[in-house]
Amino acid sequence: MNYQETISFLFTQFPSYQKKGESAFKPGLERILKLSELANNPHKKFRSIHIAGTNGKGSCSHMLASILQESGYKVGLFTSPHLKDFRERIKINGIEITEQYVIDFVHKFKSKAESIQPSFFEYTTIMAFEYFTSQKVDIAIIETGLGGRLDCSNIITPEISIITNIGLDHQQFLGETLTEIASEKAGIIKPNVPVVIGKKQGETVSVFDFFAHKNNAELIYAENTYINYQLDLKGYCQKENSKTVLTTIKKLQNKGWEIPENAIKKGFNKTVTNTGLIGRWNTLQKNPKVICDTGHNEDGIKLIIQQLEDETYENLHIVWGMVKDKKTSNILNLLPKNAKYYWCSPKIERALTTEELKANASNLKLKGESYSSVLTAKENAIKSGGKNDLIFIGGSTFVVAEAL
Predict the structure, then answer these.
(1) Who's near 261: CB < 8 A, 6+ residues apart?
(2) Are strands 219-221 and 90-92 parallel, antiparallel or unpaired?
(3) pLDDT recorded at residue 23
(4) pLDDT given for residue 168 in this prediction
């Protein structure tokens, strides 16, 4: 199989939750432990940082990787989903896993894994773990896929665990309340491993206290950490994320990791350059200015709207699409009424149809037209926009992926 055939096999043989939704979700650690045994337990052979949370996992992961790279370490980075190419998920010092490694890994594991019937994410996770072991990374930043307790990445024992924040997302899997969701995310807290919490929230404090005490894990809240660094990630959410990252870095320093002040400064300022992160308050062009952002749940979108309000423009155009497992009306209700909308649907099974999206939006007095694809919607928005207008593209990671 060549690279494209290999990726096609992964997506069809082992369906991806990101693309298919609930039918592809396989919680639990049984299959990943069996897969890991086939690969000689690579998760035990490298040091790591484990990150869970509702929002900010990807940004925190990339900022941490950037700072550790600037400190001279060989840093693995495992995140999801990808935007353009599968290999974005697995990187070392900003360089993606090679196509040949992906091909060889799948070829080697194809028949062995058949009886286990792993999910796409389990297969990808064990690929990342074996890759990091084979390349002898100094440390790997590992982002959970969904949740924490039953997420297949949760077989690692990290140097530090991080829970960025807790919001309402994926309630069908994680629980309807912040307390229930926090309990799932707190499943990554390990015995005697410190845990950094990015945001102190009334409903979750007792949950994290309980799990930290139970595991004799030092509990550190990041919100009082003072940040005075220049960030190249420009989203409003990055203020909170950078506090979480700096708190983690300070704890690593306390544990004996050599991370100079200059590496912290350069790491924050060169996250995009060092790691290749895309899709976070990305400016795609000017005149008219086009911005995209992958924020896709209520908490993330509230910050996006706040940031849009602080932009200067004559007219606002919004290219918007969603997946169908979100609370559509709750999210649409947050959007500005004074914008012209370009409704679209990403090309995945989980996508909310453009017709349903437009109908929901019309009920909330949001005005716009439907388009056959994300790119058509983007092109029409740019064509309609004056040079002093602002065009925003978002609503779903997959809309941003198709717009880039």
Answers:
(1) none
(2) unpaired
(3) 46
(4) 62
Who contacts 281 (Cβ-Cβ below 8 Å, separation ≥6)?
A: 233, 234, 235, 291, 293, 307
Tell me how far apart the alpha carbons of residues 320 and 46 are, in angstroms, rounded to a whole number: 41
Pairing of strands 75-78, 90-92: antiparallel
Which residue numbers in the chain have pLDDT < 50?
16-19, 21, 23-24, 170
Residues 6+ away with beta carbon under 8 Å from 273:
94, 232
Give residue 339's pLDDT: 96
d(CA 311, CA 316): 10
Do 313 and 289 meet the contact criterion of CB atoms below 8 Å apart?
yes
Tokens 């890759």: give the residue: 131
Structural tokens at position 138: 């100094």
Domains present along the chain, CATH in parentheses: 3-275 (3.40.1190.10), 282-403 (3.90.190.20)
For residue 251, which of 193, 210, 298 has the smallest C-alpha distance? Answer: 193
Running DSSP on this structure, what letter comes out for residue 323? B
Report which secondary-structure segment, H or E, holds 379. Answer: helix 374-384
Which of 374, 381, 375 lies closest to 395, judged by CA?
374
- Give the CA distances from residue 96 to residues 128, 182, 203, 275, in Å, rounded to whole numbers and listed in that order: 11, 32, 39, 9
How far apart are the C-alpha atoms of 115 and 310, rounded to whole Å? 54
Residue 92, H or E segment: strand 90-92
Provide the pLDDT for residue 18: 47
Task: With both helix axes pointing from N to C terminus, report the angle between 261-269 and 238-254 in degrees, rounded to the nearest 10.
Answer: 150
pTM of the model: 0.92
pLDDT of res. 279? 92
Instruction: Decide: 264 and 227 in contact? Cβ < 8 Å.
Output: no
- How far apart CA 179 and CA 30 sit, in angstroms, is 26
Of 292, 357, 293, 368, which Cα lies nearest the Cα of 331?
Answer: 357
Per DSSP, what are the bridge partners of residue 340? 317
Which residue in the block uniquely carries the two structure tokens 């207008």? 389
Please identify which residue in the block is written with the tokens 């790491």.
Answer: 267
Could you check whether the bond before residue 81 is cis, i.e. omega within 30 degrees of 0? yes
Chain centroid, CA 399 distance in Å: 15
